[in-house]
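Would you be willing to look carefully at the protein I have copied below?

:::
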Amino acid sequence: MGIVVAGPTRQAIFAESSGAPILALNEGEAIGSFTLHQIAPDGIELTGPGGPYHLVPTPDATVRPATNLPPPPQSPVDEK
């Protein structure tokens, strides 16, 4: 699971290593019998049968960091 929080945009991304389709859900959307109640940078809260559940993303040990990326663009400098 991954979490994207950028300004007002909040999405939880669910992916399995088995190759199942990736799901990107917003707050209020359903996944099976659960509703994605809240998305925060440190985890999500699902509500469903049996009450609320808090899930925290876990890193995938098989994913390696990207290498040889170009440098980020530089911000323009105000030369007054």
Q: What stands out?
A: The CA atoms of residues 13 and 24 lie 4 Å apart. Residues 2-55 form a domain with the SH3 type barrels. fold (CATH 2.30.30). The first strand starts at residue 2 and ends at 6.
